[in-house]
Amino acid sequence: MYKTGGDFDSDYVEALHESLSQYGDFICFTDGDVPDYIQAQPLVHGWEGWWSKIEALGYSDDILLFDLDTVIVGDLIDMVTVVDSNRHQLIMLSDFYFPEKPASGIMYVPNELGISLYNNFAKRPDTYMASMRGDQEFIRYVLGDDIKRWDELLGDDYICSYKAHIIKSYPKHLKPKQVDVGKSKIICFHGKPRPKDVKDINVKL
User: 55-102, pLDDT tens digit by residue?
Assistant: First the structure.
């Protein structure tokens, strides 16, 4: 999902394409321009910020969504296998600070469920956007917390947070799960710093 006007540019799209295109069709949902070799799916509703991810849920196929501030540092065969084994199940992250809550930075969405969520939201988007903080709160509102999580299916080490697990920057009252980042295949940035701001990991941007 590439929304123009913020901290991200097409370099992030190209980096994810390089990492992910080997696993299947790569599509960028965007209101901007990307290189010709990348398949683009135009955003049409103009929903602000992270709410634009809801538009991707209305796509005509199952989708595995990655936020642009995601860095792939290993092979994802195990993730592909998990998706193949859970074709009819929504899979989300556990929030890195509040793991009881689902997070949408990486999520697999089966088409039937995605269409249902999209149609629900599209009936009254202004109401939802005014009363909720973002797409993952909307999904939680509709489906509750009984959602499959990547850490349950792939283990705690597979996906790490740059802030919570690498630089350990968070309020002292929070206690994120312990993660062996040396075993992680994916690093999520979820906010600042952005991947381009970091020099101590192998980020090709």
Answer: 999 999 999 999 999 999 999 999 999 999 999 999 999 999 988 899
Helices and strands in the chain: count of H runs, count of E runs:
7, 9
Whether 203 shows a pLDDT value over 50: the answer reads no
Q: How far apart are CA 1 and CA 53, in angstroms?
A: 7
Q: 9 and 33 in contact (C-beta within 8 Å)?
A: no
Give the helix/strand (H/E) hosting 186. Answer: strand 186-188
- Reported as a pLDDT band with limits 50, 70 and 90, residue 44 is very high
Residues 49, 128: Cα–Cα separation, whole Å = 14
Q: How many beta carbons lie within 10 A of that of residue 37, not counting itself?
A: 9
- Provide the pairing of β-strand 102-109 with 63-66: antiparallel
Write down all domains in the chain, each with its CATH number in brackets: 10-197 (3.90.550.10)
Residue 2, class by beta-carbon neighbours within 10 Å (0-12 exposed, 13-18 middle, 19+ buried)? Answer: buried
pLDDT at 22: 96
CB 51 within 8 A of CB 135: yes
Half-sphere exposure of 106 (CA within 13 A, CB side): 25
